[in-house]
Design a protein that fits this description.
By secondary structure, the protein is an alpha/beta fold. The protein contains 13 helices and 8 strands.
Length: about 400
């Protein structure tokens, strides 16, 4: 086997392992673990629930305040043990003024806008409850979400709990909604298995909680605050659990342009996180968690998108050497790649058309995901990602 073919199989292994193989391996490991362990989940009586702070960072979210507060007031958790805190640094659309009309809200406002993580750093010293739950202003929480999250903290080894992000699905969706919804279904399954095996790898910013004592001030230029906060809890030897019964609901991005903007920021933040959390790459120190972290996150944010780019010319050179015609494995694989990218092109052409055939958008969304990593890397290297994030526009529910 010549050098090109060896390179081809290395690239193919990394790609398949990252997007499919790890999921299969993870599921098999979880099945084996179930054979040797029992479900020891415990329930908590209502009077045993601890005090919890629900922190909602917001920037110009006036349009969501009433909906968010109505949702918060309907959460199934003792009202005298749920402290509601809003942080509205830099808001100039009247978000803070509207919040001042609520008696049950503790509001922290500053006219200066320095970004979400700066606002959180400023307010966290004022949190006195043993647990703090973070949630976005534009998401609705499931009625029992706080209860399910708190229940996970019965295990003293648990330092962080992530809820599930649910994308509102319609029978017909444009590319962004269809692609994002399908992606999050798969991602949620991986998170569930990760947590069951040992620990989830990061938390969803829409809904997650930590033990307050484990919070350390985060660097002010941090892009993915939820990821850094949760992984630093894991660095201290605690696990991150995932409870899909605790969930946050939001609509998908309004279109692929908005979704790409969001994904580029996440990718730039992901690369920043890999650099700052590089100690987690030490499998001799962190063992199983390092394996999960590298397999589920690091590969996606670093070398796998590069492998996808390289495997195209490599497979072409192989079939060019052996002859462009024929139905050998390398020939078929090369043409399947082209078909996939043609599928992505079709998804782009149908981008603004609502359709119930959501499978058409899978190649397009997959292409956008990996393109965002390349563009995010360029943005990270150029230090062009501001910590002051303008939220991507979300689709309206029709």
């Amino acid at each position: 086997m010549d050098t090109l073919k060896i390179l081809f199989w290395i690239l193919l292994f990394i790609i398949v392992y990252t997007y499919i193989g790890y999921g299969i391996l993870l599921y098999a490991m979880v099945k084996i673990k179930r054979l040797f362990s029992k479900d020891c989940s415990a329930s908590v009586a209502l009077n045993e629930f601890p005090e919890v702070t629900l922190m909602i960072p917001a920037y110009n979210e006036r349009n969501y305040v009433r909906q968010k507060m109505e949702n918060t007031m309907h959460l199934n958790y003792p009202k005298d043990k749920l402290k509601v805190v809003w942080v509205t640094d830099g808001s100039n659309d009247g978000t803070n003024t509207l919040l001042e009309t609520y008696d049950n809200v503790q509001l922290f406002h500053s006219n200066e806008r320095k970004g979400k993580i700066n606002a959180m750093n400023r307010v966290m010293p004022h949190v006195k409850t043993p647990l703090v739950v973070f949630s976005d202003a534009n998401t609705d929480l499931g009625e029992d979400s706080i209860m399910h999250i708190v229940n996970c903290f019965n295990d003293k080894k648990v330092g962080c709990v992530s809820g599930e992000k649910r994308i509102v699905n319609r029978d017909s969706d444009v590319a962004a909604g269809a692609g994002e919804g399908l992606y999050w279904k798969y991602e949620s399954k991986l998170k569930k298995w990760d947590a069951e095996l040992y620990s989830a790898v990061g938390a969803a910013g829409e809904l997650f909680a930590i033990r307050t004592e484990l919070y350390n001030e985060v660097e002010p230029d941090t892009i993915l605050d939820d990821f850094i906060i949760s992984l630093r809890v894991a660095q201290k030897g605690y696990t991150i659990q995932y409870n899909p019964e605790a969930y946050a609901i939001e609509t998908a991005s309004a279109n692929v342009k908005e979704e790409l903007k969001r994904k580029i920021r996440i990718s730039a933040g992901g690369i920043q996180s890999v650099v700052r959390l590089r100690s987690l790459l030490n499998i001799f120190k962190y063992g199983l968690f390092s394996f999960q972290y590298i397999s589920h996150r690091v590969l996606r944010w670093t070398i796998t998108p590069l492998c996808l780019l390289l495997i195209i010319p490599v497979s072409f050179l192989i079939i060019y050497q052996d002859g462009l015609t024929g139905f050998g494995f390398y020939n078929v694989f090369f043409w399947l790649q082209l078909i996939m990218y043609l599928g992505a092109l079709l998804g782009w052409l149908l981008e603004s058309n609502a359709t119930s055939i959501k499978v058409l958008f899978i190649p397009y969304y997959f292409f956008i995901m990996n393109l965002s990593v390349v563009l995010g890397f360029i943005r990270f290297i150029g230090d062009n990602q501001s910590v002051n994030w303008e939220r991507a526009k979300r689709a309206t529910i029709r």
